[in-house]
Amino acid sequence: MISRIDLRGEALPEGSALRDLLPRAEFDVEAALEKVRPICEDVRHHGAAAVIEYGEKFDGVRVEDLRVPAEAIARALEELDPAVRAALEESIRRARLVHRDQRRTTHTTQVVPGGTVTEKWIPVDRVGLYVPGGRAVYPSSVVMNVVPAQEAGVEGIAVSSPPQKDFGGLPHPTILAACALLGVDEVYAAGGAQAIAMFAYGTADGTAGGSGCAPVDLVTGPGNIYVAAAKRLLKGRIGIDAEAGPTEIAVLADATADPVHVAADLISQAEHDPMAASVLVTDSDGLAAAVEAELKAQVAVARHVDDRIAPALAGRQSAIVLVTDLEDGLRVVNAYGAEHLEIQTADAAALADRVRNAGAVFVGPWAPVSLGDYCAGSNHVLPTGGCACHSSGLSVQSFLRGVHIVDYTRDALADVAHHVVTLAEAEDLPAHGAAIKARFGWKVPESK
Fold first, then answer.
1. 149, 178, 201, 225: which is deepest, by most CB within 10 A?
2. Residue 28: half-sphere exposure toward Cβ, Cα within 13 Å
3. Is 448 a residue whose pLDDT tops 80?
4. 66 secondary structure, DSSP code
């Protein structure tokens, strides 16, 4: 059901050599680029008509207007199961608490008397937030995208999610209800690469006489390989958060961990997708064997086994990795750079503090990844494929731009003018120096 990789007995290699020993899903965004390029070009030139055509081709339903009517959004909230509404409201409340504290404030540094640099944080004007809708429904992704954008102060927020044949070409009603709870009324029934292109290029109208989508500055949100490829293709025209790949969990555990918990957490990630990665790193043979037994028992009574869980656990991206001790285990999980990393050891908090590469770290037996997916207050849009070594999860910062405001008086410039001219000449950029000299009658002031 799940393979083993034994790294005990010899010194672990460094860097990429260690990463190459670890399981990872194949996710060739470069190959997908050539498939999404004509789609994006078609949307660029033909707008909404192309998006609608691709929706019919890939999602099996043709919509008349990409823009979801306001009454459909309101109706989805009215008809939402009260228990689901309460859960979403609590998820939103907790996410707001965490993300509100992330907002950066303007700060001014006095470099010299009369010379200041102020860093001002300005939200992007307009964002497109993508919410997947294929094998599963993700209203939680609406929360995780919208809340940080709102807390950052973004004024223009548009959400797009694939049209659903079962719901008359509208996105899933739970997604629409989540939008309503968050006060988002600009929602489009579009998925895949065509939705990313719609955000990048805009559409003159939704149909021949419908409502169009204005271009955005930034696109965020997870999606399949074609969404990731469209993001890569259009990056530069739009900002992107990341190229999200298959979801991942790594669990670093010792003999004190409960195999029932560990197996349940590995399965919880595997049920996302057949390419999902579930990795256990442990120094305990006993725990490894117990988890293998638990996996068999729990999978036997799970849903989504044949199409998601079983292929995910059996795939090359999932494994139990045996290490000599927890120090080696820490090196392995830092090399792996998991989207989600659980620490289930006797000294979980101390080990968690030493983790350098992870999208999010979950400490101890009572902080499973499922909590982070919905109600921890943290964000679940996280770097995958080892990108945690250089990238962060979605946050308020994702929607802000730091702008430096430079304010110098004449005397403050005069005091440093000779240094500016010297450096300009050292770089053979004499016009740079001349721009300084022109302010002082072409004679560089002497430093005081």
1. 178
2. 4
3. no
4. S
Any alpha helices (H) in 337-429, and if so which ranges?
348-352, 369-374, 410-426
Residues sharing a CB contact under 8 Å with residue 136, sequence separation 6 or more, in sequence order = 272
Q: How far apart are CA 376 and CA 369, in angstroms?
A: 9
Q: For Cα atoms 432, 433, 434, give the angle at the middle one, nearest 5 degrees.
A: 90
Rounded to the nearest integer, the mean pLDDT of the chain is 95
Per-residue pLDDT, 211: 66
Q: How large is the angle between the packed helices 82-100 and 139-152, nearest 10 degrees?
A: 30
From the CB of residue 365, how many other CB atoms can be counted at a distance below 10 Å? 17
Instruction: Find the DSSP H helices in 271-325.
Output: 285-299, 310-314
CA angle 173, 178, 179 (to 5 degrees): 95
Alpha-carbon span 233 to 34, nearest angstrom: 10
Give me the mean pLDDT over the 407-425 stretch. 97
In order of 2, 112, 418, the CA distances from 448 in angstroms are: 72, 13, 11
What is residue 13's DSSP assignment? P
Task: Point out which residues pair with 321 in neighbouring strands.
Answer: 5, 281
The residue length of the chain stands at 448
Single-letter code of the amino acid located at 54? Y
- The stretches of 208-325 forming alpha helices (DSSP H) are 225-234, 259-270, 285-299, 310-314
**Angle (nearest 5°) at CA 393 between 226 and 93:** 110
Long-range contacts of 407-413, Cβ-Cβ distance < 8 Å, separation of 24 or more: 407/115, 407/116, 407/117, 407/118, 408/114, 408/115, 408/116, 409/114, 409/115, 410/439, 411/113, 411/114, 412/112, 412/113, 412/114, 412/115, 413/115, 413/439
Give the tens place of pLDDT for each residue, 55-102: 999 999 999 999 999 999 999 999 999 999 999 999 999 999 999 999
pLDDT of residue 204: 76
Residue from 70, 60, 41, 150 nearest 103 by CA: 150
Residue 5: its H or E element? strand 3-6
How many beta carbons lie within 10 A of that of residue 236, not counting itself? 9
Q: Which two tokens stand for residue 268?
A: 């919880």
**pLDDT-derived band at 137, boundaries 50, 70, 90:** confident
